[in-house]
Amino acid sequence: AQSVTQLGSHVSVSEGALVLLRCNYSSSVPPYLFWYVQYPNQGLQLLLKYTSAATLVKGINGFEAEFKKSETSFHLTKPSAHMSDAAEYFCAVKGGSEKLVFGKGTKLTVNP
Amino acid sequence: DTEVTQTPKHLVMGMTNKKSLKCEQHMGHRAMYWYKQKAKKPPELMFVYSYEKLSINESVPSRFSPECPNSSLLNLHLHALQPEDSALYLCASSQVGLALITGELFFGEGSRLTVL
Q1: CA pair distance A72, B92, nearest whole angstrom
Q2: Using CB atoms and an 8 Å cut-off, which of residues 81-110 of chain A contact chain B?
Q3: Beta carbons within 8 Å of B61's beta carbon, 6+ residues apart
Q4: Of B6, B42, B48, the CB nearest to A103
Q5: How do residues B91-104 score in pLDDT, each as one tens digit?
Q6: In this predicted structure, what is the pLDDT of residue B49?
Q7: For B112, which residue in chain A has the nearest alpha carbon?
Q8: Which of A18, A57, A103, B114 is deepest in the core (most CB within 10 A)?
Q9: What is the distance between the alpha carbons of residues A66 and A56, in angstroms, rounded to a whole number?
Q10: Is B2 close to A43, i.e. CB distance below 8 A?
């Protein structure tokens, strides 16, 4: 079975500061990992995905994430936060034929 | 712009009403999903259709009835709902085959349902 833990339900940063959203996973098989973003009153949009190719994954809007097997982590980063990055971010894991499992989400607030 | 279109965006219904949510995609995807999302929670899987056949039902109450008339359309029929069913209902689609295994989903913007 797979599971995801997102550390911090709420992260607040200043505009221009580093964004770091933490995600740890558990999977009995090699996992596929995802970060989705949800803006207010909208559906989920895929930011980036890890599917066993490069461990450093670049996504849209300047985000990237690094798969670290030894730490079972897939943290999301962005060097410089923008006001438009304010949203809810979900980490998700899928292993084999099992269903996609979402973390509880992290709400990112960007202060001017 | 999302390539998965959901209608209506908002729906208010009484507990005795019958209504439907609709979802349409034109990406050639053959897997379609319904998720339920409560405020400040992650999406919860309800149903999965693969090649227009129901492949997963996550023990959803029978007052929710899914239908997949063709490969582009997915409906969710609602009847005798309870106030606790108020939520954002998200439709998603994915390719079958490798993409179904890797889990990449394309979501619509959702239908916000309020049950009075």
Answers
A1: 27
A2: 90, 92, 94, 96-97, 99-100, 102-105, 107
A3: none
A4: B42
A5: 999 987 655 666 68
A6: 92
A7: A41
A8: A103
A9: 4
A10: yes
Give B54 to chain A, closest Cα distance, Å: 14
Q: Which residues of A touch B108 (CB under 8 A)?
A: 43
- pLDDT tens, position by position, A40-73: 888 999 999 998 778 899 999 999 999 999 999 9
Sign of CA dihedral A99, A33, A91, A1: positive
Closest to B44 measured CA to CA, from B82, B15, B11, B84? B84
Q: Is A59's Cβ below 8 Å from some Cβ in B?
A: no
Residue type at position B39: A
Q: What is the amino acid identity at position A64?
A: E
